Amino acid sequence: MFEITPWRPLRELSNLRREMEDLWGSLAGEEREFLPMRGEWMPALDVSETKDALIVKAEVPGIEPKDIDISLSGDLLTIKGEKKQKTEEKKESFHRIETRYGAFSRTIRVPVSVNSDKIEASYDKGVLKIILPKKEEIKAKQIEIK
After folding, report:
1. H or E element: which one contains 102?
2. Where does the pLDDT of residue 38 fall: very low under 50, low under 70, confident under 90, or very high at 90 and above?
3. Choosing a second label site near 45 at 20 to 30 A (CA), which of 1, 8, 77, 81?
4. 63 contacts 82 by C-beta, under 8 angstroms
5. pTM of the full predicted structure?
6. How far does the chain reach from its first CA to its final CA, in angstroms?
7. What are the tens digits of pLDDT across the range 121-141?
8. Residue 119 class from Cβ within 10 Å (0-12 exposed, 13-18 middle, 19+ buried)?
9. CA atoms within 13 A on the CB side of 87
10. Could you give all domains of the chain from N- to C-terminal order, each with its CATH number?
């Protein structure tokens, strides 16, 4: 299964530069206490298959289901959403911020033909679960030998 993501060469060069700065800084003994958000935020995906369906699970904690968009176009499944940063006016000074915020888009190629009319999606405890039922002709049929 292949994942389709847009190529952004300038962003990749910028990320590489930052990673190299971090590497050289850590080798020189520098310790950075405050790390700004870097790169894009992408939810982790698990894709599994049963005899009847393809199952996609995405870790999207802190995102409301109404802020997630799922679409299937041909054999491409796209999950889009946005994790919004809550702005609260408090007198806090942060020592470290590692939580990532922002929009994301993940597109994966679905390796089997699915019945798009019966796709189901559910959300529980920060995990989005998408069940893509296989079309009847794709399911393996047991053939009896006479």
Report:
1. strand 102-109
2. very low
3. 8
4. yes
5. 0.65
6. 38
7. 999 999 999 999 998 875 667
8. middle
9. 0
10. 3-86+94-136 (2.60.40.790)
pLDDT of residue 137: 72
3-state SS string over 24-81? HHHHCCCCCCCCCCCCCCCCCEEEEECCCEEEEEEECCCCCHHHEEEEEECCEEEEEE
Question: Which residues make beta-bridge pairs with 134?
Answer: 114
Q: Which of 49, 60, 52, 46 lies closest to 103 in space, CA to CA? A: 60
Question: Alpha-carbon distance 17 to 23, whole Å?
Answer: 10
- What is the number of residues in the chain? 146
* Alpha carbon 45 to chain centroid, angstroms: 5
Other CB atoms within 10 A of residue 144 CB: 4
